Amino acid sequence: MTAYTATVTVRLKHGVLDPEAETTKRALERLDFELEALRSADRFEVDLEADSADDARERADEMAERLLANPTIHDYDVEVAER
Amino acid sequence: MTVAIIRFGGSNCDRDAERALEHLDIDAEIVWHEDGLPEDTTGIVLPGGFSYGDYLRGGAMAARSPIMAEVREAAADGVPVLGVCNGAQVGCESDLTEGAFTTNESARFQCEHVYLRVERDDTPWTAAYDEGEVIEVPIAHGEGRYEIDDDRLAELEDEDRVLFRYCDENGETGPEANPNGSKHDIAGILGDRDTVAVLMPHPERVTLPDVGSTDGQGVLRGFESA
Asked: What residue intervals traverse the membrane (chain A) (predicted)?
């Protein structure tokens, strides 16, 4: 078994309104920053032991499918690294 | 017959629902989610509140609680299920109903009275009203914006599964009357069966005459036919 960190990033699907990001963008603009757009995402770092990186990825994928992301509004991706 | 009002950690409209149902002479009891559904359950309320602190997404954790598998089974058997506010989020997160209730367009928690237009009067939840009737019901949510992809939204509307839309006092819909940016002004929808419904507004808060309005009674009377 090897120790991995699987990083799951959950984002709103393209086209789904992100009011929190809009509010954050306006706050940045009030601070005189110039920006075109801002998107927010949730990042989950999952430490786990697995036989292989593929195995770790598969388990993290299932976590995203079953709980971390809501397929109605979210896309997600998983990155795996040894730790 | 007993309507089971499922209490999750953080539910806070469970007692309101119990009192409202009692007022209508509908037998109801609060059931702790870990205890499972009682055998004599003839109806189910997923109450409002902030189950699991709204961590991750409103309703996400409660939707994965083991009792929800029992709720889905009961719903498939025709047991009436009503999800209110956080319970509506739980309903969508657990696939009892389609779509998702997510962050309000304003990005704020909104607590106010709204008008709803009854879109169908041939369901248990709306038999007490007429189609097109306008009722006044309070909302109290930060994540109530109904979101669904356009294809599925078209299906939902084709199948006539929109139960309530936000509107003004004359029944007109539009951005001014839509408190949270919900797609097509949707406030409440039906599941696969007409006996399953979720809505963000709180009918149980306008059921007891003491609070000034009884516009919500008709929704809870959906359990009378059970």
From this structure: none
What does the alpha-carbon distance between residue A18 and residue B104 come to, in Å, rounded to a whole number?
Answer: 9
- Can you list the domains of chain B with their CATH numbers? 2-223 (3.40.50.880)
B95–A contact, CB cutoff 8 A: no
User: Annotated catalytic sites of B, by residue?
Assistant: 85, 202, 204
Residue A23's CATH number: 3.30.1280.10
The CA-based angle B171-B175-B176, given to 5 degrees, is 70
Q: What tokens were used for B143?
A: 């994540």
Binned at pLDDT 50, 70 and 90, residue B118 comes out as: very high
B103: nearest CB among A13, A20, A70: A20
Question: Residues B70-111: pLDDT tens digits?
Answer: 999 999 999 999 999 999 999 999 999 999 999 999 999 999
| Paired residues of A82 in beta bridges | A4
Average pLDDT over all residues of chain B: 97
Is A16 an 8 Å CB contact of chain B?
Answer: yes
Note the pLDDT of residue B226: 57
pLDDT one-digit tens code per residue, A52-82? 999 999 999 999 999 999 999 999 999 999 9
Whether the CB-CB separation of B146 and B99 falls below 8 Å is answered with: yes
Task: Select the residue of A22, A23, A72 nearest B147 (Cβ to Cβ).
Answer: A72
Count of domains observed in chain A: 1
Q: Which of B57, B61, B143, B156 to mutate to test the interface with A (most CBs of A within 10 A)?
A: B57
- Rounded distance between C-alpha atoms, residue B144 and residue B181, angstroms: 8
Residue A52: domain span: 2-82
